[in-house]
């Protein structure tokens, strides 16, 4: 099992959710987050003052998928959430040791 943590633009959340549901993922967790990437936010000039807005509102989508579904889901995210501009986001992948469905106590991929 792999955990996919995708940080995306808020405006791509709705189409991404639809695409992930079409791809039959087992579950999705969504968080509102603030962050910055390589550009470290942006700079604004307000009444002669320079304001560095170093975190932007982003959405973090977390899902755990079976190993054989990983590449398909990465393709869905990269195609739906891409605008081509800086700040499109990032995907982090990590190994998941186990999953337990609390109701049935099933474990592993079957519990996803
Ligand atoms: N190395 C990182 N660690 C943790 N979070 C990150 C990292 N890089 C990006 N993020 C998160 O992803 C969001 C989007 O990052 P962003 O797309 O701007 O990455 P980037 O590396 O600057 O790429 P780009 O040059 O396309 O903007 C950030 O606001 C931050 O929340
Ligand atoms: Mg950036």
From TrEMBL:
Transmembrane domains' residue ranges: none
Example GO BP: regulation of nitrogen utilization
Cross-referenced Pfam families: P-II
GO CC list: cytosol
Entry coiled-coil feature ranges: none
Top-level division of the source organism's lineage: Bacteria
Any one GO MF annotation of this record: ATP binding
Record-stated family: Belongs to the P(II) protein family.
Protein name: Nitrogen regulatory protein P-II family
Source organism (scientific name): Mobilisporobacter senegalensis
């Amino acid at each position: 099992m792999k955990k996919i943590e995708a940080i995306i633009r808020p405006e791509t959340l709705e189409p991404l959710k639809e695409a992930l549901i079409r791809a039959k993922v087992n579950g999705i967790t969504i968080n509102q987050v603030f962050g910055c990437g390589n550009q470290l936010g942006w700079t604004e000039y307000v009444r002669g003052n320079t304001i560095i807005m170093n975190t932007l509102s982003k959405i973090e989508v977390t899902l755990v998928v079976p190993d054989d579904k990983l590449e398909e889901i990465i393709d869905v995210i990269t195609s739906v959430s891409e605008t081509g501009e800086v700040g499109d986001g990032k995907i982090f992948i990590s190994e998941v040791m186990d999953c337990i469905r609390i109701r049935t106590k099933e474990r592993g991929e079957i519990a996803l």
